[in-house]
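# step 3/5: fold
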Amino acid sequence: MTTEETELVRPPGRRERSRQRIHDRLYTSALELFAEQGYERTTIDQITERADVARGTFFNHFQRKEDLVTTWAQQRQDKLRTYMDKSLAHQEDDTTVQLERCMSALADFNEAERNLTQVMLAAWVRSGQPLQEEPEYAGHVFVRAILAGQARGEVAPDIDPVLAGNMLRDAYLGLLYRWSQTTDDSIPLHVELRALLRISLTGVLSYPRRGAARPATPVEAASVN
């Protein structure tokens, strides 16, 4: 093993572990306060008081309060990527199964902490972070599933995987914004995301069989009556 490899596998020392504990305490305290009283009404002083550290310690870990939102979003992305790495390793599962599994995981993440998702998603949008994401990274998980499907011949070869992946990601975020702003729990996020995926994969147009009568549109039916 080389010196560089030894450095990579060396466990963190006491100072690194202490720093990580403080970082985690600040982050956890911030999320608790955001869920309790909202992002805008939470101050850095309140965060450091709950974490039981000096105010200046906050800036050793985060440059500004918005960095907590960035950390939250990054952790969600990392969690989804880890989950889908394991899923995509099952190459016998087709594209539909992989995408359904991805949507189901996203629903689980959001439904498990709905109040926090509402607060953090709003703060993420207001801070302009969706516009700062790299285009090729935005729908990376969906892109990988579609690419794997193309390799198996399940996805049409003329489909642009990046465009398709980003469209799925944009549709997911649009639905998530709407879901996070409503108090109606009658339709779980799982159900809505499954419906979104079905429409995305099958389309919205209905092509009647050759020779079958096309049902009259509401306008046509009204004119007959």
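# step 4/5: annotate
The mean pLDDT is 85.
# step 5/5: archive (pending)
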